[in-house]
From TrEMBL:
Superkingdom assignment: Eukaryota
Gene Ontology CC: one annotated term: proton-transporting ATP synthase complex
PANTHER family in alphabetical order: ATP SYNTHASE SUBUNIT (PTHR12386)
Classification lineage: Eukaryota, Viridiplantae, Streptophyta, Embryophyta, Tracheophyta
GO molecular function per UniProt: proton transmembrane transporter activity
Subcellular location, record wording: Mitochondrion membrane
GO terms of biological process kind: proton motive force-driven ATP synthesis
Protein name in the entry: Uncharacterized protein
Organism: Iris pallida
Homology family: Belongs to the ATPase g subunit family.
InterPro entries: ATP_synth_F0_gsu_mt
Keyword annotations from UniProtKB, A to Z: ATP synthesis, CF(0), Hydrogen ion transport, Ion transport, Membrane, Mitochondrion, Transport
Main location: mitochondrion
Coiled-coil segments: none
Length: 122
């Protein structure tokens, strides 16, 4: 048992060295590739300014998203109004999408409960 523990510790140390070496290389490589996105000098004030720019840029995009949402909703209403002309393939795709969406919500709920089906935590 002690020999297995020692072997495990040796392998863990070897893996740790490998991850440290490759992790640093990957970090440097990623920074080099994305150098154009790095703001110089990287100060707290600059980060706060960029954060505000992102926030207000996202807020400025809301009217366009709002309009796109209503256009999409109008399209759905139009399809529902003309549902008697709907092809079987389209109805099947819509049904599969609905089933998939429902399944993702169920899986998310199960995961949120700690992978239990009843919600009971022993």
């Amino acid at each position: 048992m002690a020999a297995r523990l020692q072997m495990l510790k040796t392998k863990a140390a070897e893996l740790s060295r490998l991850v440290a070496k490759k992790g640093c290389e990957h970090y440097k490589e990623t920074l080099e590739k994305n150098k154009k996105y790095v703001v110089d000098p990287p100060t707290v004030e600059k980060c706060q300014e960029l954060s505000k720019q992102l926030f207000y840029t996202r807020m400025a995009s809301l009217p366009g998203r709002y309009d796109a949402f209503w256009k999409e909703l109008d399209g759905v209403k139009n399809v529902w109004k003309n549902r008697h002309e709907l092809k079987v393939e389209d109805a099947g795709i819509a049904a599969l999408f609905g089933i998939e969406l429902y399944a993702w919500f169920c899986v998310g709920e199960i995961m949120g409960r700690g992978f239990t089906l009843t919600g009971y935590y022993p």
